[in-house]
Inverse folding.
């Protein structure tokens, strides 16, 4: 379970957010551009330092400003798929998925087994030797997802995972995310713009506006976005 | 009915084509003719015979040796320097930026004088080294130092701008996957910018190979010790042996041409993978 209380002064407003995500559940962060969604993910991942915060994951403290605790991003065991998937274009699909495992110095046998497992389950086994730069958007997104899940993360975070994907690829990625979040029993935060994505993938939704929570509840019950978010 | 060839639009188009043709031919000839003249001045037989001249051989090997050392130092020190410089903010960063660019506009002879004033036997630092019997000026080390001073900006600027342009999402992803800074630099950042880095390195090699002004000021012109190819050209053309000057000039043209073709091929390869 993830529990986060985050405060960070940004240029135009202060991000002030309390977030709780249970294992096996997907919480969707919504809001207009610049509402603080990606900043929230970056703070949880350890890529940005908040002004004050308390972030715990499965009862392990990742960040606590009052106690000067700040676990570095590389040790947080968070599977984070950034915008545009960020697969390493010069590496093969195999090397992309193995990247995090090699960084953690796992035995070769374990790496080979995990790569085989994830390529099979993400339906990219036939692409294993292909350079990631030559893949389509949907394939890249699946490689990025496999790479993030291969490190056996305690939390999965996806930033705009459906941007630029066609309808079929979007559905495949959504199904895979839901399947593995349930199977691995890990909390998941997904950032998206679209209400329809939120309803498809999320258990809960949280709408941000200028760094503050405007609405939260079951993602299927999300009201018309503009009536919730008063930014527009 | 006016015939097509007399219509105003056709006329304008033809005049434009003619003007463009003349301009392209003029610029091309201006750049190409001196090179062609150099090749016409020597017969192939004389060229290959002069290649065995001890002055040519010594200048060639000294130039290749010093340039390779220069390139190795610039790449090994310059790559992590450019990485940290592009990733972190620190006081005086703008001054460092300016210093990186300075050797590009500074006359090389001035660079040589500056190095001499610092590292020469009576220089600000050189005088202390001299007390311990260490001499830098007028040695092969001085040749390398002059080349590094003059040629390193070609690599540093390129590396800095490549690292700045690289989408931070790649390095951030690598961090969340558990990679150390060294692994990120060697497995993600450098490979993703390799084409541009190689272009910068090739340009640095070319500039170092052609270095003259700073070398003659700081390292002097001692055959076999500090007399690199451009210096040997100068000595040869001064009258001692004009064929040596011409042969080394032709060699330098061939190497420079090879360097430019290498850069073009790398850039084309880069464009293909982009």
């Amino acid at each position: 379970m993830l529990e986060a209380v985050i405060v960070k002064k940004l240029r135009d407003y202060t991000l002030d957010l309390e977030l709780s995500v249970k294992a096996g559940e997907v919480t969707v962060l919504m809001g207009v551009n610049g509402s603080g969604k990606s900043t929230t993910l970056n703070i949880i991942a350890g890529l940005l330092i908040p002004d004050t915060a308390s972030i715990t994951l499965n009862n392990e403290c990742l960040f606590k400003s009052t106690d000067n605790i700040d676990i570095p991003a590389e040790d947080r065991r968070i599977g984070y798929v950034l915008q545009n998937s960020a697969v390493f274009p010069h590496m093969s699909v195999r090397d992309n998925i193995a990247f995090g495992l090699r960084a953690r110095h796992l035995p070769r046998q374990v790496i080979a087994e995990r790569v085989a497992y994830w390529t099979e389950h993400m339906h990219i086994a036939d692409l294993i030797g292909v350079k990631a730069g030559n893949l389509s958007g949907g394939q890249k997104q699946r490689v990025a997802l496999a790479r993030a899940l291969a490190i056996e993360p305690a939390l999965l975070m996806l930033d705009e995972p459906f941007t630029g994907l066609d309808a079929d690829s979007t559905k495949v990625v959504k199904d895979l995310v839901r399947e593995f979040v349930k199977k691995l029993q890990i909390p998941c935060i997904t950032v998206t713009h679209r209400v329809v994505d939120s309803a498809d993938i999320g258990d809960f939704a949280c709408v941000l506006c200028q760094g503050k929570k405007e609405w939260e509840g079951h993602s299927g019950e999300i009201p018309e976005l503009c009536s919730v978010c008063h930014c527009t | 009915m006016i015939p097509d060839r007399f219509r105003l639009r056709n006329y304008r188009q033809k005049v434009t084509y003619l003007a463009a043709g003349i301009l392209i031919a003029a610029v091309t000839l201006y750049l190409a003719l001196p090179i062609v003249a150099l090749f016409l001045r020597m017969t192939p037989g004389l060229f290959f015979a002069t290649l065995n001249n001890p002055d040519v051989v010594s200048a060639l090997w000294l130039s290749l040796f010093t340039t390779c050392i220069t390139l190795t130092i610039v790449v090994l020190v310059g790559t992590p320097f450019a990485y940290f410089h592009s990733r972190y903010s620190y006081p005086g960063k703008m001054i460092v930026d300016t210093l990186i660019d300075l050797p590009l506009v500074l006359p090389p002879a001035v660079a040589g004088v500056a190095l001499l004033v610092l590292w020469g036997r009576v220089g600000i630092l050189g005088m202390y080294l001299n007390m311990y019997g260490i001499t830098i000026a007028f040695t092969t080390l001085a040749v390398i130092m002059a080349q590094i001073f003059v040629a390193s900006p070609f690599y540093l600027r390129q590396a800095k701008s490549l690292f700045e342009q690289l989408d931070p999402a790649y390095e951030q992803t690598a961090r969340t996957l558990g990679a150390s800074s060294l692994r990120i630099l060697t497995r993600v950042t450098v490979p993703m910018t390799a084409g541009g880095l190689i272009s910068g390195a090739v340009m640095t090699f070319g500039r170092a190979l052609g270095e003259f002004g700073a070398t003659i000021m700081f390292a002097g012109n001692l055959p076999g010790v500090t007399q690199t190819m451009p210096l040997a050209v100068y000595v040869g053309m001064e009258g001692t042996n004009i064929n040596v000057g011409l042969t080394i000039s032709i060699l330098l043209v061939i190497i420079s041409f090879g360097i430019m073709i290498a850069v073009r091929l790398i850039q084309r390869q880069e464009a293909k993978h982009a």
